[in-house]
Specification:
Length: about 425
């Protein structure tokens, strides 16, 4: 069929030039017809095929088009088995941005779907889904409406401000009242040494939502994974101030800078998928409290897509740390906060001058200067990231960016820091 059509096309192109405008129009219509026929063959459901022929005319699906396709299909009584299969086919074969593909795959198959309130699912499989379930999953993955649990003394409020104010900086990090120094120090260290990874971590959807990228470790490689958050952040009911990572003075302040608080919220949501703190006993929870305790080394890899190394104080020299800093590495040190060693805290080492290491506290204050003898006495471990992966912009059909192969690397998710935040009081 196609060879005959191509032969006819060649003959038509040899017509006199006055007719070529008409011929071009006919060719375009013929191509559209061929594409429709191809889609009808690829997709079992006529409705999905028709929607694809409309949205895929430019050979690229946008976030808005995928959402519209899902909503339009679900509006006709939910998603039937054939429609689910077709959406999986679309996700595997159609060209779309990586984050849209990731969110669509998560909507279909993420373990987090089983925990969505009022949705009794183990994992989505080839079974019909009611329209109400599909709409809830669209809200969860594309609009960030399944927010993490927060204390009873807090509430969610829409927060004004910008994603970045003057770019991302380590000085933007102010931990708040949660024991996640390991995550806050990691964000600060990456902002300091691999700034573009922080900027490229967020996609502003221009509808008061942000899609946030993390990397999950598969055993050999890091793979991009995405969640969506909205502008609603937890604040104290009595004061309106941030409960966890700081964003500014008040929720209504247009000068607020949101990236740290949004990354923290996104990580709590991502934790529900079981990838964030796998093996820690806290995975599967969409809850800020699940972030109290974790590993800075693991978080560095999840933020950047490159494996960080861990080095014990007993086997590390001052020159080793100085050299790592000189080479542009992100370095986090773990410090005992009491004589018993039961309280621990993470700091970013930002430099070395006049015989002292400069330690930045993710609390936003109480920074330290320590010589090596003090470090040996009070600190016990380093997490070091020497490179960060460049974001893949691939939009080829079926593409899911994979970066930083790490043969033989096993990710240990056991927490280095646990318990309540040391800075419950500033």
């Amino acid at each position: 069929m196609i060879s005959k059509w191509l032969h006819a096309l060649a003959c038509r192109l040899h017509r006199p030039s006055p007719a070529r405008t008409t011929i071009a129009r006919e060719i375009r219509l013929d191509l559209e017809l061929l594409e429709c026929k191809r889609l009808l063959v690829m997709y079992h459901d006529t409705g999905v095929a028709q929607l694809m022929s409309r949205y895929y005319a430019d050979q690229q699906l946008s976030r808005a088009e995928v959402i519209s396709l899902l909503q339009s299909t679900a509006d006709n009584g939910g998603l039937e088995v054939n429609e689910l299969r077709d959406i999986r086919t679309m996700c595997a074969n159609a060209a779309m941005p990586n984050h849209v593909r990731s969110l669509t795959k998560n909507l279909l198959d993420s373990p987090a779907n089983a925990a969505v309130s009022r949705i009794d699912l183990n994992r989505l499989s080839d079974q019909a889904l009611p329209a109400s379930t599909v709409m809830r999953l669209i809200d969860k993955w594309f609009y960030g409406k399944e927010r993490p649990l927060i204390p009873s003394t807090a509430e969610y409020r829409s927060v004004a401000g910008q994603l970045f104010v003057g770019g991302a900086s380590r000085n933007d990090v102010d931990q708040g009242k949660l024991g996640n120094c390991w995550l806050m120090a990691s964000l600060a260290a990456v902002a300091d040494k691999f700034n573009s990874n922080i900027r490229e971590m967020f996609i502003d959807n221009q509808d008061s939502t942000f899609t946030v990228r993390f990397y999950r470790f598969t055993g050999r490689t890091y793979v991009e994974d995405y969640v969506t958050v909205d502008r609603f952040l937890p604040v104290a009911k009595t004061t309106g101030r941030a409960v966890f990572a700081e964003f500014g003075r008040q929720a209504s302040d247009s000068k607020n800078e949101l990236w740290v608080a949004l990354a923290e919220k996104a990580y709590a949501q991502w934790n529900q998928s079981g990838f964030a703190q796998r093996g820690s006993g806290k995975d599967g929870q969409n809850d800020y409290a699940a972030l109290a305790g974790g590993s800075a080394r693991v978080a560095l890899g999840q933020i950047t897509g490159s494996a960080a190394t861990r080095s014990a104080m007993s086997t590390t020299s001052a020159q080793f740390v100085i050299q790592a800093l000189a080479e542009g590495a992100a370095v986090i040190v773990s410090r005992y906060m009491n004589a018993a060693g039961t309280s621990r805290h993470a700091y970013v080492i930002t430099g070395f001058e006049r015989g002292e290491f400069l330690l930045q506290n993710p609390w936003g204050h109480s920074h330290l200067r320590m010589n090596w003898q003090q470090m040996e006495s009070e600190c016990y471990r380093f997490a070091i990231l020497r490179k960060a992966s460049a974001r893949s912009a691939s939009k080829l059909p079926g593409a899911m960016a994979k970066v930083s192969p790490m043969p033989g690397v096993v990710q240990d998710h056991r927490p280095e820091f646990s318990g309540a935040r040391l800075s419950t009081v500033a």
